Input
Amino acid sequence: MATLSVRPAIRWGWITLSMVAGLIGLPALAQSQAADKIDPMSYARYVGEKVCGDCHDTEKSLFGHTQHAKIFRQNPRNDVEKTVCETCHGPGSLHVTDTRDKTKIIGFTKEWGTPIAKMNAQCLNCHEGAERMYWDGSIHQKNQLACSDCHNPMARFSANNLLKKPSISETCYTCHQQQRMEFKKKSHMPVPEGKMSCADCHNPHGTSGKRLLKADTTTELCYSCHAEKRGPYLWEHAPVRQDCLNCHSPHGSVNDKLLQQSRPMLCMSCHTIAGNGMGHQFRNPVPTIGAAVTAPAAQIVGRSCQNCHAQIHGSNAPDGQRFRR
Output
């Protein structure tokens, strides 16, 4: 009987010792797991621009012409900016000892492998707020676009903004090929001529509205240049007040005045003869066999409907209900 009473006690003793050992081992396990998550760059130290330039002589010569180089070299705000290169790339002591390990320094190309969020965070350390206040949540940020996809801070390829291409529009075209094609159409915004750029209408770093527009609506944006179309008018044309894009293409068109369709077809897409009483019939300009040749109807030549309805955006004339004056 004595033997039977001792065995359970021994068994429970082993269980207790195992639990104690497990509890003692938990901090060590947690410490081991935490060590796996430590960024190796946290052990790195700053080495200075001269050490970087010993290997990267080409980058050093190109970088010297940029605004970043002038700021970091001539007017640094703190000790980190005095290191110049490491202001953006992070401390480089570990990179110097092992140049093949790409995790030991921050690179700004997709091939390098640094996470895009980390690359952009380096830029936003200085360039936060102002035009970039809506960057988080913008369509470019959601599509994993890196600052270095549009900008090249290591060389001066553009007159302003350290862009990767000579101009803002050329930089945008690298992704937006459809818009590049539209600007080549007969009627287009004067972007190819250099009279305006994509950034005149869009903020690539994000806005509070749709399509990265610099206004709440397309119409408000158009009014910033075309103030004479704003009104108010005594007689308003409903589609004009609703949205300029009801009639116009924003980038380019094969029709006059950036119109979506040629006249009179654009007008007739709403003003059908049978539907809402245009008030007149178009004569057929193509004569039938045996019929006398007649001149085309005035409503379908030249400016078409606007031959008569000249004030199509709106009229302030007392009798301008039909936008004729």
User: Anything to note?
Assistant: Residues 82 and 302 are 67 Å apart (CA to CA). DSSP finds 14 helices and four strands in the chain. Residues 1-6, 32-37 have pLDDT under 50 and may be disordered.
